[in-house]
Specification:
The complex is a heterodimer of chains A (404) and B (346). With 404 residues, chain A is α+β, with helices and mostly antiparallel strands. Chain A has helices at residues 58-63, 71-75, 82-97, 103-132, 136-156, 176-201, 205-211, 219-225, 229-233, 241-244, 265-289, 308-313, 315-327, 368-373, 376-380, 385-395, 399-403; strands spanning 18-22, 34-40, 43-50, 165-166, 169-170, 334-343, 346-355, 360-366. Chain A has 17 helices and 8 strands. In chain A, β6 (334-343) and β7 (346-355) form a beta hairpin. Classes of the chains: A alpha+beta (404), B mainly alpha (346).
Chain lengths: 404, 346
């Protein structure tokens, strides 16, 4: 029976939030992130992230491996910037061991880290833009990333899981061809950013409407949540490990730390775009300044495997090889260290305890993506569903690093 | 009665005219479906080249047979019906958009005199049919019994209803100028101008119409109902095989129909601007269907071009654009057109 006119609107209608499970299989969660959203219409009332679907126990695995064979584990953290993770690990072990890599190795590492930053940032921005609906930038950036991956392949034979740096240096020297091609890339890349990336997005009204004033986090909150990297700098905090605690060759090159103002999605995007140009600048300076010389520290045989051809012909190398494989680095120190490096996503910290054996007694990772996921509920509160996607994109997480 | 020069015997006139209509329908449906197949190919190629890649290259020369490979694949895919779905509605839903959009083709004059149903309310009929297609989306969203489909269906119904209004109003200017709802008459009325198109006096109407058409056909930047990255595929997330293909087909037929309407109402249909024909008399010898298709293909290209360029609107932004920008623009267009027509004395 239809309700009488005066009764309409008086009857109490019971409503409740719609719970939507977003992920772990979802195209916009950048991997296996699972978000449980409570929706009131299109508005998100509550967002709860669940992590752990990609947990492999990297920290525990490292305890059962010698220092040098734990290196490939770090490739799989943030798998699109594995070179930077490797370098972070090597820097940590070097600090623990008190080893200083030679100048040339430092420059090579800096170049590699910045190449990684470019390739990670263009993926970060590209997938972010793709999630918001523009497809073309994604393909453009993959074209440019391809150049960088080819260069990685040229140097170490691998494109993604590189394991190229070594404790006390790098695995092998870079070729002249590598230098030439990279220099050529740095010549045209800034123009590519301006001509192809920024013209597509920067002044696009829809993009501006989708990103300005969305996912705002104040500088104070950002610090309190422990955000680092471009996600923090978008809120206007000029914190960068490369500037504040330089490692490798960062104290010898000039670069700016771009910061945002409003701490919204747009500012973080701008920070990443600006960092692309700064990374490009760093690479150019490194190539121009790079000295000749050895690529491994003089006492390298104590902690890094000798070249294979030497093992087969040289007695001493054979002994070193045997000891390193069976027991780990010779004269591993006791002590603990926290070492931070600036990977593309933020501050990657390694906390390591050495007990004198060839294996780390404890390795604890402070991964930026994990910290960034924790801020998602804050960003997504009272946002629309579409903003959740924008927020996932803007914190630029990689689940391999979140779950470790 | 005379068909292809042969005289039809008395008593068979009705049967003959029905036969002619059936043949016409068969031809148009076949041609439309072929267009749908190749619209997907065209889209993948166009967007591919815009995005520094090649698009389909494997099946046939430069992937020319790709649409058939896709069609065959979809046809033989397993037809999955979710256990919790409302099965009847779930099965009916995909048929509605295809039926509605294909029916809309019936009133479109492809060239002078070639139209299945030359009815006097052609434009209204087109609107009716394009609105009907929304039912398929809403029913799919509801019947799938999935939260993602449901959200997609809700978005779509809200979107289609919101954009129907400015779209209808944007064409009122054309109706005022031509004084007819018959599509053939509208094309002929445009020939009175030296430029042969309503594009120039009705630029505002054309703009509103095109934006609404993008929204009506759920294309980027208004592809919220199927927002891949948010709702995975939106209302048809639970569909597979041929039923899934129906939604795809409906979307492309919708695109082509909307392009046809744009061409007929604003670009002079199969005709060329009289000033151009006067200047180059040889152009008059080219069949009208060529110009018509060229104009339609340009509009279809426009859909792809936009898709490769812009991101997606958010739900609330989409709504405010529809009601706060396009609707006032369309109304302003009506007022201006009426005033000008009143004082210019038609």
């Amino acid at each position: 029976m239809p309700a009488a006119p005066e009764e309409i609107g008086k009857k109490e209608v019971k409503t409740k939030e719609l719970t939507v499970n977003m992920g772990p299989q979802h195209p916009a969660t950048h991997g296996v992130l699972r978000l449980v959203l409570e929706l009131n219409g299109e508005t998100v009332v509550k967002c709860t992230p669940y992590v752990g679907y990609l947990h492999r126990g990297v920290e525990k695995l490292a305890e059962n491996r010698t220092y040098m064979s734990a290196l490939p584990l770090t490739d799989r953290l943030d798998y699109i910037s594995s070179m930077a993770n490797n370098i972070g690990y090597c820097v940590a072990v070097e600090r623990l061991f008190g080893v200083e890599p030679p100048e040339r190795a430092k420059y090579i590492r800096t170049i590699m880290a910045e190449m990684t930053r470019i390739s990670s940032h263009i993926i970060g921005v590209a997938t972010h833009v793709l999630d918001i609906g523009a497809t073309t930038l994604f393909l453009y950036s993959f074209r440019d990333r391809e150049t960088l991956l080819d260069l990685f392949e040229m140097t170490c034979g691998a494109r993604l899981t590189v394991s190229y740096p070594r404790i006390g240096g790098v695995r092998n020297d870079v070729s002249q061809e590598f230098i030439d091609k990279l220099y050529e890339f740095t010549g045209y890349f800034p123009e590519t950013i301006e001509r192809e990336y920024e013209t597509l997005i920067d002044r696009n009204r829809i993009w501006l409407q989708r990103t300005k004033g969305i996912g705002v986090i104040s500088a104070e909150d950002a610090i309190n949540w422990g955000l680092t990297g471009p996600t923090l700098r978008g809120s206007g905090v000029p914190y960068d490990v490369r500037k504040h605690a330089p490692y490798d060759a960062y104290d010898k090159v000039e670069f700016d730390v771009p910061v945002g103002k409003n701490g919204d999605v747009y500012d973080r995007y701008k920070c990443r775009m600006e960092e692309l140009k700064q990374s490009n600048r760093i690479i150019r300076q490194c190539i121009e300044q790079m000295p000749r010389g050895p690529i491994m520290a003089p006492d390298a045989p104590k902690f890094t495997l000798p070249p294979k051809d030497k093992v087969l012909t040289d007695m001493e190398s054979l002994i070193h090889h045997f000891v390193l494989i069976t027991k780990g680095p010779i004269a591993s120190p006791e002590g603990e260290i926290y070492s931070a490096t600036e990977v593309p996503k933020g501050e990657l910290g390694f906390y390591m305890i050495g007990d004198g054996s060839g294996k780390p007694y404890r390795m604890r990772l402070r991964s930026p993506s994990f910290v960034h996921v924790s801020v998602l509920p804050e960003l997504c509160k009272d946002a629309l569903i579409a903003d959740v996607i924008a927020n996932i994109g803007t914190i630029d997480i990689v689940l391999g690093e979140v779950d470790r | 009665m005379n068909v292809f020069g042969m005289t039809v015997p008395a008593g068979f006139e009705l049967a003959t005219s029905i036969a002619i209509i059936i043949v016409k329908i068969a031809v148009i449906v076949a041609v439309t479906m072929l267009h749908v197949l190749y619209a997907t190919y065209f889209e993948r190629k166009v967007i591919g080249h815009m995005q520094v890649r090649l698009g389909p290259m494997r099946v046939g020369y430069h992937g020319i047979l790709q649409p058939f490979a896709d069609g065959i694949k979809l046809f033989f895919k397993e037809d999955v019906v979710p256990a919790e779905a409302d099965k009847t509605v779930f099965k009916i839903a995909p048929i509605i958009p295809v039926f509605a959009t294909l029916s809309a083709v019936a009133v479109i004059p492809f060239f002078d005199g070639f139209v299945i149903a030359n009815i006097n309310v052609g434009l209204l009929y087109l609107f009716a049919m394009s609105s009907l297609a929304a039912y398929g989306v809403i029913m799919a969203g509801w019947a799938s019994n999935s939260k993602y489909s449901f959200l997609g269906g809700l978005r779509s119904s809200a979107q289609v209803i919101s954009y129907e209004v400015p779209m209808g109003l944007s064409l009122v200017g054309v109706m005022l100028l031509s004084g007819s709802l018959n599509l053939t008459e509208i094309v002929k009325a445009q020939q009175q101008y030296w430029f042969g198109m309503y594009l120039i006096p009705q630029f505002l109407g054309y703009f509103v119409f095109m934006v609404s058409a993008f929204a009506e056909t759920n294309r980027t930047p208004f592809d919220l109902p199927e927002a891949e990255s948010e709702l995975v595929a939106g209302y048809f997330v639970e569909y597979s095989g041929m039923r899934f293909a129906f939604y795809y087909a409906a979307e492309y037929i919708g695109m082509i129909v909307m392009s046809c309407v744009a061409v007929i109402c604003f670009w002079g249909g199969w005709t060329l601007p009289p000033v151009l024909v006067d200047a180059v008399p040889a152009l008059a010898a080219v069949p009208g269907i060529v110009w018509f298709l060229a104009k339609v293909y340009f509009h279809v290209f426009l859909y792809y071009w936009v898709r490769a360029t812009v991101p997606r609107y958010r739900y609330d932004q989409l709504m405010s654009l529809g009601w706060k920008v396009l609707l006032p623009l369309a109304l302003a267009n009506i007022v201006v057109t009426s005033v000008v027509k009143f004082f210019a004395g038609s």
